[in-house]
């Protein structure tokens, strides 16, 4: 689907998208809009999804530009347009695209959405079958390596003030798996994780920082390979629901962080000099977490 870059003319009182001039392919029509945040300022990075109404097929996905503007050309027909941004109420509209015409500029202001209900105070334990600890690292000179840890435990102690909450995770380092037995054994060796000397990777938080919408930053210490470093988990809270083994109370979140291997004395340059094929100097860590509220009748997750 052709997407168009364009310039806009400015005058003191006209809309940010006024004066757009762009050729439209023969037989096609065009749609454009400007997206503003709750303060009325141009909003870049808003997600725009366009769906054909007659068959439900998604025909375009794009984001608003640094000026909050969106422009695309489409075959004639009726389309549903969905505009979303984290923490804001989504906007929906239907547009009829006509061949040879550019629809009048649409101005869309997104408003603050209602954030999901925070977990109730108490102890929440990770549910291993519904939790994943993954990592992505670039193999030097080759494609990315994807892996995960299969054995871990931990949970969240939710305080009355969410900012005072704590999270703790203990990972069995030997449970690392990348789908290649030779590589996994090497990662467990003294060249990398050295699981014989350092059997666990441990994270303990010391601060929850609210970033707006569903976003939080969790600061804490990650201990690996005998070294502790402060890291920040960029966390998106996914909400709370009753469901699972016995309709128990659950909450979910997705957290990511970037680790620098040399911070943990994993010297990739030295390994390269010795002719050892290694992953690159940074590793992206991803925690896809689901936790159950712990009470006297909380069911035990199956193995």
Strand content: over 45%
How far is the N terminus from the C terminus?
47 Å
Q: How would you characterize the largest beta sheet?
A: 8 strands, antiparallel, barrel
Strand order of the largest sheet: 8-11-12-14-15-16-17-18
Class based on secondary structure composition and strand pairing: mainly beta
Write structural notes for this entry.
5% of the residues lie in helices and 48% in strands. The protein has 303 residues and is mainly beta. The strands form three sheets. It has an eight-stranded antiparallel barrel with strand order 8-11-12-14-15-16-17-18. Strands 3-2-5-6 form a four-stranded antiparallel β-sheet, with no helix packed on it. β15 (215-224) and β16 (227-242) form a beta hairpin. The two termini are 47 Å apart. The model is unreliable at 1-14 and 272-277 (pLDDT under 50).
Brief sketch in words of this structure:
By secondary structure, the chain is mainly beta. Helix content is 5%, strand content 48%. The N terminus is likely disordered.
């Amino acid at each position: 689907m052709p997407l168009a870059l364009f310039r806009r003319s400015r005058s003191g009182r006209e809309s940010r998208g006024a004066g757009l001039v762009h050729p439209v392919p023969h037989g096609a029509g065009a749609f454009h809009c400007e997206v503003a945040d709750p303060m009325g300022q141009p909003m870049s990075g808003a997600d725009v999804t366009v769906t054909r109404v007659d068959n439900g097929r998604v025909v375009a996905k794009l984001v608003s530009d640094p000026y909050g503007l969106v422009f695309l050309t489409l075959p004639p027909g009726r389309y549903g347009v969905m505009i979303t941004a984290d923490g804001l109420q989504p906007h929906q509209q239907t547009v009829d695209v006509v061949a040879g015409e550019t629809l009048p500029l649409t101005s869309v202001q997104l408003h603050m959405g209602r954030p999901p209900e925070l977990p109730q105070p108490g102890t929440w334990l990770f549910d291993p079958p519904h939790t994943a600890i993954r990592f992505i690292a670039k193999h030097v000179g080759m494609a990315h390596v994807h892996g995960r840890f299969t054995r871990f435990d931990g949970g969240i102690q939710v305080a009355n003030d969410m900012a005072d909450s704590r999270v703790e995770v203990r990972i069995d380092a030997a449970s690392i798996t990348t789908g290649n037995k030779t590589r996994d054994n090497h990662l467990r060796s003294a060249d990398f994780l050295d699981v014989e000397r350092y059997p666990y990777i441990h994270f303990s938080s010391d601060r929850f920082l609210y970033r707006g919408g569903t976003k939080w930053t969790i600061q804490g210490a990650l201990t690996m390979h005998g070294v502790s470093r402060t890291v920040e988990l960029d966390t998106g809270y996914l909400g709370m629901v009753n469901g699972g083994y016995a309709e128990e109370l659950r909450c979910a979140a997705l957290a990511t962080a970037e680790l620098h291997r040399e911070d943990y004395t994993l010297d990739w340059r030295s390994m390269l000099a010795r002719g050892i094929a290694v992953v690159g100097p940074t590793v992206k860590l991803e925690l896809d977490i689901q936790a159950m509220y712990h009470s006297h009748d909380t069911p035990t997750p199956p193995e």
